[in-house]
C-alpha cells in the first residue's frame, strides 16, 4: 500500500525534484557501487516487491553483490555475497555497527532502548550483557530446560489427541503456541493464558507477538521522507503502533510489579538459576552495578526483545524444517531413524539425547540456510564514510545484508536451491557468524545474542515431533506439491500454515 501512495505523491512533489537532482550531482563525485535506475523521489522502492529478499537477489545478479540504492530519502547499500560481508566484519565492523532510527523502533521499543534497534555504544553493550546474564547464557539456557520439557510435553499430548481422532493438525499454530509459552515462562515466569472465544481458544498473546513482529518490520513515511512524517498519523500507522504498545504495557507493568512484590517477600530464597528474566533485570536494577540506568521503559524494551527474538523465529524455523522433511519422505525417515535409535524406548527426550542427534542438527542448519527467519538482516548504518571493495560508501548509509541470497549463492553452495542436510555432515560450519556464507543469526558485533536459546529450543522441538509421530500430508496429497510460498515480515513465514496428519509411533 505504501508504494502506490508514494507514487501518487510525485504529482505534488515536483518542486523537490530540483533539489534532489542538485544533491545527486554532488554525490556523483563519489565512486559509488552500481545502482539500478530509480524513480524521482521514491528511488528504488518500487523494485522491492512483496518479497524483497528475492527481488534484491534478482537485482544483484545484474548489478553485482554490492548495490547502491535509494529507498526514498535514504541512501542504501545492499550486500549479497559472503566475500563482501567478510570484508565488512573483518575490516570495518565498528563503522557498520550502528542502527538507523526507525519510527516502529521508537514507538514500540520505548525510543529504541532494546538491544536489536538501539544505537551502537555503551548503552547497547550494557543492555546486551544484561540479557545474556539474565536469560541467554549457556548456564541459564540449561537451567531453564525444564520449561521446554513441560511445554513440549503439553504439545505432544495435544497431537496424541489428534491421532486418536485421526485428524490433521495445524503444526504452525501448535509451534507458535508452544514457543510463546516457553518464552513467556522463561522471560515473565508464567504462561500467558489463552482466551476463550466463540470458535474455541484464541492465543491472544501469540497474535499480539505476531503483530509486533509485523509492525517492527513495517516502513513508515517518516523513515523514508522525514518531511512527510505527518502522513504516518493521517494513515493511522502511528495509532496502530501505539495501540500495540499499550497492550504490551498493560501486561509488562503488571508482571514487573508482581515480581517486585514477590522479590521483596522472598529475598532470602535466591535460586537465581531457576528465575526468569524479569527477576534478573530487577536484581540488576536494584544492585545498580550496570553502567546504564534501567528505567521501567528500559526493562520493557528488553523484555520485548526477547519476545521478538524467541517466539516467531523459533516456531518458523521448526515449521520450515518439518515442511522440507514432509516434501522429502526419505530424508524424514532418515531423521526419524536417528532420533529413535538415540532415544530407544525412553519415555522422554533429554538434551544429552539431542546432543547425539547429528543428522537432526544438520536438518536444522539446512532449514536455516534455505529459510533464515530474517531473510534480510536488521538494517545497519555507517557511522562514517568508508571505502568498501574499491567503492565510496557515504556516512549515514543504511546497510542491508541479503542473508537469503548469501546462503543460496551457487558459487558457494552445491545444488544451492535443494534441501540437502547431508551437506553439513562432517562440516565445521556453525551458527557463530564466522562462516560468512552461513549467517542466519547475523555476524559481527550485532550478532544475535539469543542464538543459543533459539537453537536449543528448535532442536528439542524437532526431536520430539520426529520421535513420537509419523507424518504425512492430509488427503493423500503428493509430497512434492506442498505449497512453500513465503509471507514477508521481520520473520519470513510460510504463507499457508503447515497442516500435517500425525500417526502415533509405538516404540
From TrEMBL:
Keywords: Heme, Iron, Metal-binding, Monooxygenase, Oxidoreductase, Signal. Heme binds at residue 448. The keyword Transmembrane helix does not apply. Residues 1-24 form the signal peptide. SUPFAM superfamilies: Cytochrome P450. The keyword Signal applies. It comes from the Eukaryota. It holds the Pfam family p450. Its cofactor is heme. One of its GO terms (molecular function) is heme binding. PROSITE patterns: CYTOCHROME_P450. Belongs to the cytochrome P450 family. This is Cytochrome P450. The lineage of its organism: Eukaryota, Viridiplantae, Streptophyta, Embryophyta, Tracheophyta.
